[in-house]
Write a structure and sequence with these properties.
Elements lengths: L5 H42 L5 H23 L5 E7 L1 H7 L2 E4 L3 E2 L5 E5 L6 H5 L8 E10 L2 E9 L17 H7 L15 H7 L6 E6 L5 H15 L1 H7 L1 E5 L2 H7 L2 H4 L5 E5 L15 H8 L3 H9 L10 E5 L2 E5 L1 H12 L8 H13 L5 H16 L2 H10 L5 H6 L4 H7 L6 H11 L9 H14 L26 H6 L16 E4 L7 H10 L4 E6 L9 H12 L4 E6 L1 E6 H13 L8 E4 L6 E4 L3 H15 L4 E5 L4 H7 L6 E2 L12 E5 L8 E7 L1 H6 L4 H9 L2 E9 L5
Parallel strand pairs: 2-4, 7-13, 7-14, 8-9, 8-12, 12-13, 15-16, 17-22, 18-20, 18-21, 19-20, 21-22
Antiparallel strand pairs: 1-2, 1-5, 3-4, 5-6, 10-11
The structure holds adenosine-5'-triphosphate.
Adenosine-5'-triphosphate binds next to helix 5, helix 7 and strand 15.
GO molecular function: 3'-5' DNA helicase activity; ATP binding; DNA binding; hydrolase activity
GO biological process, one term: recombinational repair
Pfam family, one: AAA_19
Length: 725
Amino acid sequence: MAPPVDGDVDEAEREIAHEQAFVDRVYRQLETSTRNAEALAREGHGRGTLGHDGGLVERDAMVFQAAKRIATLNAAHEGLVFGRLDLDETKVRADGPRYIGRIGLRDENRDSLLIDWRAPAAAVFYQATAADPQGVVRRRVLRCAGARVTAVEDDLLDPEADGAGDLPIVGEGALMAQLSRARDRTMHSIVATIQAEQDKAIRAPSKGVVTISGGPGTGKTVVALHRAAYLLYSDRRRYETGGVLVVGPSGVFMRYIERVLPSLGETAVALRSLGEVVDGVRSGRHDAPAVADVKGAARMAELMRRLSRQAVPGAPHEFSVFYRDDRLTLSGRDLNQLRRQLLSQGKRNRQLPRVASTLLDALWRQVTGERGRARGKDEFVDTMLGDRAFVEFALTWWPALDATHVLRWLRDEELLGRVGEGVLSPEDRALLTASWTGRDDRDWSVEDVALLDELRYLLGDAPEKPHEDDPLAHLVDENMPELTTITDREFSRGPASTTRTEDDGYAHVLVDEAQDLTPMQWRMVGRRGRMATWTIVGDPAQSSWPVPAHAARAREEALGDKPRHEFHLSTNYRNSKEVYDFAARYAERVGLHADLPQAVRSTGVGPEERDVDDLHDGVRKALSELSGAVEGTVAVVVPVERRAEVAGWLESWTEHADDTRGDARHEARIAVLTGLDTKGLEFDGILVVQPEEIERESATGRATLYVVYTRATQRMLTVTTTQSR
Ligand SMILES: Nc1ncnc2c1ncn2[C@@H]1O[C@H](COP(=O)(O)OP(=O)(O)OP(=O)(O)O)[C@@H](O)[C@H]1O
């Protein structure tokens, strides 16, 4: 590209200065609006002292609204104004240019100063093209550092329009500038450069299920997050009250995306990795692939169903008591039959209020002595309810059950064999037992979380209100808070025990990396979205689940008959062309049938495959070169078995942090990750250690390696050695 001549520089500076004047005005207005919102909050607090209930309600509403507005205004500070539209002459004369920003603002006369990027009037900013300008003559992107305009980038969309010749055109294209920037450890919003095909998916109507497919780096994740922000804007009442749930593959991934929505002014969204979907349980640890395949399989639903119906291990097998002239006995057989009778009436925990009466009915039928019969059933019941042995028996025979407690029953191999009859092979049983043996009681894997959720629903919630005549009433937890909004719910998440299933539902569920959900995970996520609208994002070629047909069936069951709307993204914005060509060739070679997007940016530097004699030296040398060659982040991607070893080699590297251990230095530039950990992430440089071992790690190792090969924005290097370890 030719270097700019002096005249171009002057013109660009003039345009920047011109835009700066407008941006300054917007920031002044932002300050005024913030002050007004703060005054409103103070006034709201004042109303609380009026001394009547109405005052309090009014105060709460005012303070809440003001606090929300203040949060939005504060979040919008960075890159507040990013777009300008000059519309064709008639409109230009009527309205002046239209400025687009992260939020909408009005001036002191209540005239529109800045249009929220989600408003209908802003849509044309994203959808106009040279082929179809839709009335836009010039589209301008303002690049800012804080409140300072650093560059403007123009697209002349309609050179034939009246007045087009008077509009200066400067810059080299906002998209390329944005794509070439060095990466840090978090995803950024793309409000300024959303492309037309992406905009369609973002603004799709909220009915039913929107699926967004596309190959690596096409913006599926970032588009889905902007869609969440769009939905909150377009139907705030519904989505803020009902909640928006975003489910992603891992904690590292959730940290990577967590700033996008707040930067768009939205905080009312629950971001959960698959190991955190169930309230009260958190896991970031994956089982080995073979174990994960068993735990994720649809047949585990049947295993959980059977498990939820078992007698409590260790509970008494029979019960005997003397009443007047009779010895009354409930044998093991009787108890089994009573258990089945109770279970036939509904979920196990919901039967708690019926337990005592069911047992007492069975015992009363055995009272034949004259004294007993003569005094009648009421006295019998009173006597038994005062009988400590009876009450204790009832409590141990039918306690309120927690899913985590019940799943632990399966550590007993005999029980596992019994409930697994016809469902699990001996190999499956051995894998499950090994995965649970020697673990701390609260140490669950990500894959266990879906089993726990299945059990929670099978067991049901214990009744909320104690039953007045029920001696077992104190088993029931009365102190469950009533949760009304997503914010309440997020604040109330405690680590100790799982909460009520009835609080699980959301108004919108967004599933990222959907190709990786196992059937059991689809069941778990599906329960959160029974009444919801959905956004589902994925790329089948990147799937690490070995039986896609089973997952597809579970997904269809989760979504039910909600109407589907499909969107496909076709441009890879992440990888350089050189990196992506390498990955695409790999996908073709190993037969992944991948959806291959077009990469739009070239660096002139292709990936390098290096054979080394000594892996330790080879990795350190390669990392040193790579981290010198790129400005931003670097990932060293290793086979699972080599993770600790390689991380040890880099321990002294100051810029390195161990992400998967939740290292506090997760802002560090260099991370050591396994192939699966890299899902959804991106780095400027990728160093792949022993790629063939990553490929052999699991049945879907080739898909994992394809994911790894599609993570680099600038450079990629592979290091292989044939030396024995
Ligand atoms: N319109 C855009 N403008 C600027 N950057 C974009 C745009 N679309 C996508 N990107 C950038 O491209 C990169 C890839 O986006 P994203 O991670 O959302 O892709 P993806 O399709 O989810 O990828 P994968 O499936 O490989 O994980 C991100 O850095 C994102 O910010």
